[in-house]
Write a structure and sequence with these properties.
With 261 residues, this protein is an alpha+beta fold. The protein is 23% helix and 30% strand. The strands form 8 sheets. Strands 7, 8, 11, 15 and 18 form a 5-stranded antiparallel sheet that branches. The chain has a 3-stranded antiparallel sheet with strand order 12-13-14, with no helix packed on it. Its main location: other. It is found in: Bacterial flagellum basal body. Belongs to the flagella basal body rod proteins family.
C-alpha cells in the first residue's frame, strides 16, 4: 500500500526536523550561534487524470485532475542570520558586532574563516587570536607592556604602552560581509567559510559603508528562542506520531484485506 511509503517519508522528515531543533537548543549558550530551520518540499505526484484533459467529444475539459503525492523530503536547512542579544562580559578583548559583518579568521589549513564570536585572547607572541588559537585578521599584536587596551566602535585597537600618557594605535579590526550570508558553510568552532552560494566577501572597516559597529567588553549571544524551539519540537513530535498512526492504519487495512482473501 502506497500510504506506508508516503507516511514513512513523513516520519523521516520529522526526524530530521527534530535533529535541527535539538542542535538549536544545544547551542543556546554558544557565542554568536545562528539557528537553523528545516524547510520541506513535497515529492513527485502520480497523475491518474490530468487537469484540463478532454472529457467528451463535445470538448468539455476536466476542471480538476486526480493526483496522489508520494510524500515529503527535507529541502533545506537555512540559517537564520538575525542579530542575537548583546551581553556584557567586562573582558577587554571581548568584542560584539552590532549589525552586518563577520570577523575574519586564519584557519590552520590556511583558509579564511568567518565568525560572529568575538571572544578573543592573546597568544604567547601577543597576537590577537580566537579561543582555539586561530589568528584574527589583520594580525594585531598587543605588546606585553600594553595596558588599558581599548577597541573603538570602528575597530581601532589602542593601548597605553609602558608609562606613556597617550595611547598607541596597534591596528584596526576589519569586518567582512556577504551578499548571501545564509549561504555560508558552517565548519565548527563558531566558524563559517565562503561558498559559491554566499559570494565573495566584501571587507571594510566597522561602522562604515553598511557594516555594523563593534562593542568592546560584550559578546553576541545565540539568536535561539527557547520557547519557540520547544513549541516547534512539540509540533514535530505530533507530526511524527500522526505519520506513525497512518502506517498503523494502513497496516490494519492490509490485514483486513488479507483476511478477506
Amino acid at each position: 500500500m502506497k500510504a506506508l511509503y508516503t507516511a514513512s517519508t513523513g516520519m523521516a522528515a520529522q526526524e530530521r526536523n527534530v535533529e535541527v531543533i535539538s542542535n538549536n537548543i544545544a547551542n543556546m549558550r554558544t557565542t554568536g550561534f545562528k539557528k537553523q530551520r528545516a524547510d520541506f518540499q513535497d515529492l513527485l505526484y502520480q497523475v491518474y487524470r490530468r487537469s484540463g484533459s478532454q472529457t467528451s467529444e463535445g470538448g468539455t475539459q476536466l476542471p480538476t485532475g486526480v493526483e496522489v503525492g508520494s510524500g515529503v523530503k527535507l529541502g533545506a536547512t537555512p540559517r537564520i542570520m538575525s542579530q542575537g542579544s548583546v551581553a556584557p562580559t567586562q573582558k577587554e578583548l571581548d568584542v560584539a558586532i552590532r549589525g552586518e559583518g563577520f570577523f575574519s579568521i586564519t584557519m590552520p589549513d590556511g583558509r579564511t574563516g568567518y565568525t560572529r564570536d568575538g571572544s578573543f585572547e592573546r597568544d604567547s607572541q601577543g597576537q590577537l587570536v580566537t579561543i582555539e588559537g586561530y589568528l584574527v585578521q589583520p594580525g594585531i599584536i598587543i605588546p606585553d607592556t600594553a595596558r588599558s587596551v581599548s577597541i573603538s566602535a570602528d575597530g581601532q585597537v589602542e593601548a597605553f604602552l609602558n608609562q606613556d600618557s597617550s595611547p598607541t594605535a596597534l591596528g584596526q579590526l576589519q569586518l567582512s560581509r556577504f551578499v548571501n550570508k545564509a549561504g555560508l558553510e558552517a565548519v565548527g568552532d563558531n566558524l563559517y567559510v565562503e561558498t559559491a552560494a554566499s559570494g565573495s566577501p566584501q571587507t571594510g572597516a566597522a561602522n562604515a559603508d553598511g557594516f555594523g559597529n563593534l562593542l568592546q567588553g560584550h559578546l553576541e549571544m545565540a539568536n535561539v528562542n527557547a520557547v519557540t524551539e520547544i513549541a516547534d519540537l512539540i509540533a514535530a513530535q505530533r507530526a511524527y506520531e500522526m505519520n506513525a498512526r497512518v502506517i498503523s492504519g494502513a497496516d490494519e487495512m492490509l490485514q483486513a484485506t488479507s483476511q478477506l482473501r
